[in-house]
Amino acid sequence: MTGMEDYQNGNEGSFNSEEAETVVKECIENVVGGDDYSQSQVNKWTASIVERCLTQLVKQGKPYKYMVTCAVMQKTGAGLHTANSCYWDTAMDGSCTVRWENRTMYCVVSVFAVTVA
Protein backbone atom coordinates (compact mmCIF):
# COMPACT_ATOMS: atom_id res chain seq x y z
CA MET A 1 0.00 0.00 0.00
CA THR A 2 1.57 3.28 -1.07
CA GLY A 3 0.93 6.60 0.64
CA MET A 4 -0.80 9.46 -1.13
CA GLU A 5 2.49 11.35 -1.52
CA ASP A 6 4.12 8.40 -3.26
CA TYR A 7 1.19 8.21 -5.63
CA GLN A 8 1.32 11.93 -6.41
CA ASN A 9 5.07 11.90 -7.06
CA GLY A 10 4.87 8.77 -9.19
CA ASN A 11 1.90 10.01 -11.18
CA GLU A 12 3.57 11.35 -14.32
CA GLY A 13 0.28 12.68 -15.62
CA SER A 14 -0.64 14.90 -12.69
CA PHE A 15 -0.10 18.64 -13.12
CA ASN A 16 2.95 20.01 -11.34
CA SER A 17 1.86 23.45 -10.14
CA GLU A 18 5.22 24.29 -8.52
CA GLU A 19 7.00 23.69 -11.82
CA ALA A 20 4.45 25.85 -13.66
CA GLU A 21 4.79 28.64 -11.08
CA THR A 22 8.56 28.72 -11.64
CA VAL A 23 8.04 28.98 -15.41
CA VAL A 24 5.48 31.79 -15.01
CA LYS A 25 7.65 33.80 -12.59
CA GLU A 26 10.58 33.61 -15.01
CA CYS A 27 8.39 34.78 -17.89
CA ILE A 28 7.05 37.75 -15.90
CA GLU A 29 10.56 38.71 -14.76
CA ASN A 30 11.85 38.53 -18.34
CA VAL A 31 9.08 40.77 -19.67
CA VAL A 32 8.55 43.40 -16.94
CA GLY A 33 11.16 42.66 -14.28
CA GLY A 34 12.80 46.07 -13.91
CA ASP A 35 10.20 48.24 -15.61
CA ASP A 36 7.89 50.86 -14.12
CA TYR A 37 4.20 50.70 -14.91
CA SER A 38 3.38 52.31 -18.25
CA GLN A 39 -0.13 52.50 -19.69
CA SER A 40 1.24 52.46 -23.24
CA GLN A 41 3.18 49.22 -22.63
CA VAL A 42 0.52 47.16 -20.83
CA ASN A 43 -1.02 45.51 -23.90
CA LYS A 44 2.41 44.53 -25.19
CA TRP A 45 3.46 43.20 -21.77
CA THR A 46 0.36 41.09 -21.18
CA ALA A 47 0.57 39.59 -24.69
CA SER A 48 4.28 38.81 -24.25
CA ILE A 49 3.76 37.23 -20.84
CA VAL A 50 0.99 34.87 -21.96
CA GLU A 51 2.85 33.91 -25.16
CA ARG A 52 6.08 33.18 -23.28
CA CYS A 53 4.28 31.17 -20.61
CA LEU A 54 2.48 29.07 -23.23
CA THR A 55 5.66 28.45 -25.20
CA GLN A 56 7.63 27.38 -22.10
CA LEU A 57 4.84 25.14 -20.78
CA VAL A 58 4.33 23.43 -24.14
CA LYS A 59 8.12 22.86 -24.39
CA GLN A 60 7.89 20.59 -21.34
CA GLY A 61 6.12 18.04 -23.52
CA LYS A 62 3.36 17.21 -21.03
CA PRO A 63 -0.02 15.92 -22.31
CA TYR A 64 -1.96 19.11 -21.59
CA LYS A 65 -3.93 21.82 -23.29
CA TYR A 66 -3.07 25.13 -21.62
CA MET A 67 -4.96 28.35 -21.04
CA VAL A 68 -3.06 31.34 -19.63
CA THR A 69 -4.53 34.64 -18.42
CA CYS A 70 -2.62 37.74 -17.37
CA ALA A 71 -3.65 40.95 -15.63
CA VAL A 72 -1.31 43.89 -15.04
CA MET A 73 -2.40 46.68 -12.73
CA GLN A 74 -0.76 49.88 -11.60
CA LYS A 75 -0.13 50.15 -7.86
CA THR A 76 -2.46 52.88 -6.65
CA GLY A 77 -3.39 51.59 -3.22
CA ALA A 78 -6.58 49.99 -4.55
CA GLY A 79 -7.34 46.38 -3.70
CA LEU A 80 -7.02 43.59 -6.27
CA HIS A 81 -9.02 40.38 -5.86
CA THR A 82 -9.21 37.47 -8.29
CA ALA A 83 -10.98 34.12 -8.28
CA ASN A 84 -11.41 31.21 -10.64
CA SER A 85 -13.39 28.00 -10.67
CA CYS A 86 -13.03 24.86 -12.77
CA TYR A 87 -15.11 21.76 -13.45
CA TRP A 88 -12.61 19.09 -14.45
CA ASP A 89 -10.67 15.96 -13.47
CA THR A 90 -8.97 16.97 -10.22
CA ALA A 91 -6.63 13.95 -10.33
CA MET A 92 -5.03 14.96 -13.64
CA ASP A 93 -5.93 18.54 -14.51
CA GLY A 94 -4.65 21.50 -12.55
CA SER A 95 -4.04 25.21 -12.29
CA CYS A 96 -1.77 27.69 -10.64
CA THR A 97 -1.99 31.41 -10.06
CA VAL A 98 1.10 33.56 -9.65
CA ARG A 99 0.88 36.98 -8.03
CA TRP A 100 3.94 39.07 -8.80
CA GLU A 101 4.71 42.67 -7.96
CA ASN A 102 7.38 45.31 -8.13
CA ARG A 103 7.46 48.92 -6.95
CA THR A 104 4.87 50.19 -9.41
CA MET A 105 2.63 47.31 -10.52
CA TYR A 106 0.96 44.00 -9.82
CA CYS A 107 0.86 41.13 -12.27
CA VAL A 108 -1.45 38.14 -11.82
CA VAL A 109 -1.06 35.16 -14.14
CA SER A 110 -3.24 32.04 -14.05
CA VAL A 111 -2.43 28.80 -15.86
CA PHE A 112 -5.04 26.12 -16.46
CA ALA A 113 -3.83 22.71 -17.62
CA VAL A 114 -6.39 20.26 -18.99
CA THR A 115 -5.46 16.71 -19.93
CA VAL A 116 -5.60 15.92 -23.62
CA ALA A 117 -8.12 13.06 -23.77
UniProtKB/TrEMBL annotation:
Residues 8-17 have a biased composition (Polar residues). Keywords: Cell cycle, Cell division, Centromere, Chromosome, Cytoplasm, Cytoskeleton, Dynein, Kinetochore, Microtubule, Mitosis, Motor protein, Nitration, Nucleus, Transport. Residues 1-21 are annotated as: Disordered. GO terms for molecular function: dynein intermediate chain binding. Belongs to the dynein light chain Tctex-type family. The keyword Ion transport does not apply. This is Dynein light chain Tctex-type 1. GO terms for cellular component: cytoplasm; cytoplasmic dynein complex; kinetochore; microtubule; nucleus. Its main location: nucleus. Acts as one of several non-catalytic accessory components of the cytoplasmic dynein 1 complex that are thought to be involved in linking dynein to cargos and to adapter proteins that regulate dynein function. Cytoplasmic dynein 1 acts as a motor for the intracellular retrograde motility of vesicles and organelles along microtubules. Probably binds BUB3 as part of transport cargo. Required for the efficient progression through mitosis. The keyword Chaperone does not apply. One of its GO terms (biological process) is microtubule-based movement. The gene is LOC114432075.
